[in-house]
TrEMBL record:
It comes from Sedimentitalea arenosa. Keywords: Signal. It holds the Pfam family Fasciclin. This is Fasciclin domain-containing protein. The keyword Ion transport does not apply.
């Protein structure tokens, strides 16, 4: 009888536990498991606190495979402390201020990035951001949204 009561109490406690809060953009990327390079780069660039901030932000997030497709040595060079400014420029080129959901996109629209350049959206052959394809859209975080892309886009 005591054992049954203990099990019942444990089940009740679990049911009464508050729901988990949505994660911020960084925690969402970490939890996804296929953005290890992006998270390492954001950390090296000193952008973690920014992307954990209030936002909202729209992040076009390249996968680990997208970073691996860059020319050999590119990621390693970008991660060197002396190349931090260049790394920040590349990463912030993937970020648009505000929360832009896929339903907000229109063909041939441009959007100003945090880096200062512009990206172009093309809806003719799926959803393209510059020359990268959006493979998964609208991953919501509590401070914005992530759209997964298959290439690292580089500022001109």
């Amino acid at each position: 009888m005591i054992r049954k009561f203990a099990l019942s109490l444990t089940a009740t406690a679990l049911l009464a536990a508050p729901a988990a809060h949505a994660a911020d953009i960084v925690d969402t990327a970490v939890g996804a498991g296929n953005f290890e390079t992006l998270v390492a780069a954001v950390t090296a660039a000193g952008l973690v606190d920014t992307l954990k901030g209030e936002g909202p932000f729209t992040v076009f997030a390249p996968t680990d495979e997208a970073f691996a497709a860059l020319p050999a040595g590119t990621v390693e060079d970008l991660l060197k402390p002396e190349n931090k400014d260049q790394l920040v420029a590349v990463l912030t080129y993937h970020v648009v201020p505000g929360k832009v959901m896929s339903t907000d996109l229109t063909d041939d629209m441009t959007a100003a990035t945090v880096q200062g350049g512009e990206i172009t959206i093309d809806l003719d052959n799926g959803v393209m951001v510059n020359d990268a394809t959006v493979t998964t859209a609208d991953i919501e975080a509590d401070n914005g949204v992530i759209h997964v892309i298959d290439k690292v886009i580089l500022p001109e």
